[in-house]
Amino acid sequence: MTSEDVHPDVVSTGTLPRRELVEQLMQEAYDRYAGVDDGEVADYIPVLAQADPELFGLSIVSVAGASHSVGDALHEFSIQSVSKAFVFALVCDALGPESVLDAVGVNNTGLPFNSVMALELNGGSPMNPLVNAGALTTTSLALGETADEKWAFVHAGLSAFAGHPLVLDDKVYASEAAHNRRNQAIARLLESYGRIVHDPLEVTDVYTRQCSLRVSAKDLAVMGATLADGGVNPITGERVVDPAVCRYVLAALATSGLYERSGEWLFSIGLPGKSGVSGGIVTVVPGKGSLATFSPRLDAAGNSVRGGLATRFLSGALGLNLFASRPEPRTDSR
Question: Which of 72, 97, 217, 311 has the most neighbouring CB atoms within 10 Å?
Answer without folding.
Answer: 217
